[in-house]
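Tutorial sheet, problem 5. The three components below are modelled jointly, 974 residues in total.
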Amino acid sequence: MAKTVLAVHDLKTQFFTREGVVKAVDGVSFELDAGETLGIVGESGSGKSVTALSIMRLVPRPGRIVNGYVKLKDQDLTKLTEAEMQEVRGESIAMIFQDPMTSLNPVFRVGWQVAEPLVVHAEKKRPSALRDGVAMLKKVGIPNPDQRAKDFPHQFSGGMRQRAMIAMGLTTMPSVLIADEPTTALDVTIQAQILELLRDVNREFGTATILITHNLGVVAGMCQRVLVMYAGRIVESGPTEDVFAHPQHPYTWSLLKSIPRLDADRHEPLRPISGIPPDLLDVPPGCAFHPRCTFRVDRCSRDVPQLQRVGETQLAACWVTQAGTNLNA
Amino acid sequence: MISPIPLEGEVAVEPVERGRPGKSYWQESWERLRLNRLGIAAGLVLVFFILVAITSPILAALFTHTDYRTIDLANTFARPLSAGHILGTDDLGRDELTRLLFGAQVSMGIGFLSVFVALTVGATVGLVAGFYGGLIDGLLMRFVDMILAIPAIFLFILMALLFKPNAITLALIIASVGWGSIARLVRGEVLSVRTRDFMVATKALGASDLRLIGRHLLPNVLHVLIVYGSLYLGQVILIEAALDFLGLGITPPTPSWGNMLTNSETFFFHSSWLVVWPGITIFLSVLAANLFGNALRDAFDPRLR
Amino acid sequence: MPEATRERELKRAWTASEPLLSVRSLVKYFPVSSGVTQRTIAHVHAVDGVDLDIKAGETLGLVGESGCGKSTLGRTVIRLLDPTEGTITFKGEDITRIRGESLRRLRREMTIIFQDPYASLDPRQTVGDIVGEPLDIHHLARGRARAERIAELLRIVGLNPRYADRYPHEFSGGQRQRIGIARALAVEPTFIVCDEPISALDVSIQAQIINLLEKLQAQFNLTYLFIAHDLSVVKHISNRIAVMYLGKVMETAPGSVLYRRPRHPYTGSLVSAIPIPDPRIEARRERVILQGDVASPVYPPSGCRFRTRCPRAREHCAEEVPPLESFGPDHRAACFYPLD
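Model answer (structure tokens):
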């Protein structure tokens, strides 16, 4: 029986702007087990990044968590003071970001930045922390780590910077690693390297990982389970194999049909999803996806569907599939 | 607005999400400006001064019935609110209010002319230097560096010695030291706009350089000019006043706020109001120009979008 | 509009036998300057000897990672940049060094669509003016005819002409990209360079734009040079694909051949690096993970540029530049020790 490391329940994060309230995360619940890699997939406005920031309590103003709890082991992170949260960040949960160019501090040497969490959290002395930092740089595949540790971020390439970020996140052996679009800004061959590294790291350290991305291919290759988000809610979740083989939500289904695949025949037409992702200030009533949905019925424009079990292993928030319609027939 | 489900194989004709009329950048900026009460107040003050400056002969004819030159030696240093002279008279018995009205014409006139000339010359140089780069940019900017290195005072003294400046020549002289900063500012903005994709796209359509500069570059740097223009107006009014103080500016009997201030210096102890009136008008007009300029900058700033 | 009709007659129809666009030994270097005096100390070898042919009506895909020069190649081919060396031939005419009026006439035949829908439209212009500007520049239509043409163009790309008086910031990314496409179509071009037209768009919108581009190609008999870093997209839309690395073409082949039997080691690793949205396939895939990073385009490696990362490199690769050799119909690769 796998141990649950992170439990998120009915999380709601809203941004109070001059034009209105943006419900960036609107009731998200999921669990992360030890050692697993969970994918969160969605487009812009889906709320996937804000979910991660909410877990880390890093939501910028004018945003605020307004509901729900986030339990790391048994501690509710939403109830901690900022000082207590600072002890958790970087120590029990680490986060790596999309743009390796701006997420490292340009005025400090890389070796120091990787070692810093050890000084802050593990209260190591500087020389010993630096030694551990160099060891971690070696682990993530940076050649000549002793010399490179003395370099500044601008002397590193994008891929190496991302490796350094991963090293920085792992030095304290956190229970959870959140990776927010870690390879989107990288070339595809470098992306393959970084994903391979994340796989190795997951195998060796057993760190539970949340991988946030918009790339379905990355999810297919990296994650055992996946959550699909749309307009701030989870619309489908389940084991990756099942969700990809027989999606139970029209959004997932349409998305899979609309992306070009490397192994597809050139003459298979793409079936685009019509319309555009919703403006979060003006979310359509009922199911947020219904204006773009080819399966919709009357109920979809009135009632908001909840996540229910559809099929053996999947959950989907859709009236149509919950009523028994098979999208994959 | 929601787009309907398209028929198989057809692309939906997509409407824009929010159903309101097109708002240009200028309209949006105006709406932001309107919310800034201090800025609007400052703008109104400026408009007031401009109107006064334009209509001063009419106003004088209507309210004070005298001319700014009329000397009345029997009635010198009349106190404010005395008969026929609301703001009093100066050392030669000339009516203060009338002189202030005509002084407005001179000071504001010099201010606006100077700003106009400096903006036009500076913007042209900045646009050309920024757009073409290379040798042209190098030459023009080195020239600007030279201009900016000349001590302004030296230039003013030289001009004053060569000929007695009237309002127009004074405005031009002031503009001649001021256009350099504007050129640098515009060039900087041009450098950042020039490389944006839409400039390359328009060039790829076959647009001439003139079209690119006039129709695409200029509108996208205009906001910088407008803000700077307002702030520069305040500076020019102060420079003019300072020049009058040094005896290098407008000479009496033509009134300007600056020389009214200067001439009243010696009379401060017994007729302090002669210092106060022009002091207030200078202070208010410069303050209004600065506040309005800041409000414009906030209204145009795309960060707020 | 006598001018417009005359211009249309001047634009010769091009038969399919000769390539529409031909590039030979194309080189584009950018100087790297340094110091107060701005002396040129080195060059970025953005495009370093490229040969390509594009047939009328086809889509040639151009893929590669950062620094490979694909964007530079696209812009040089339509003369937005001046080539350093080499020749470009369009409809049989040498356009490498043309200027002035002939260059302006070329701009009616070759247009470009950009990547960033937010930066490629002038924020101070209405959508109607943006789409109408090419009509103004080339004097193609005035007054009522101009307004009608603008409306027609907007409808062609799937936008409601009612919104021609709106400003770009009121539209979504995908809609802005459509506006950019409408602008490119206004001059009735023959050849369009698509420079990463969908990379900045949401995944669910990308398919809309891809389908639109394909529909327009059929409708107006267009030829595309489709530049992107996403091989999956390029493979879907292209007849043939050219793979670039550090300024040179490594391999050209039809997409399915490139996927199933790549010959160049770089193509092989590129193909294996691209994730496929199918967990069962992903679990079974053999990955060829390259070591190290892309070398600098300022100091490219001698001989074969890819040798510093190539798992099959041998001494010979450093000494001589491999030429493009034929491996089948429409299939060429530049490698001394190709994959089998």
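Marking note: Chain C has twelve helices and twelve strands. Full credit if you identified this.
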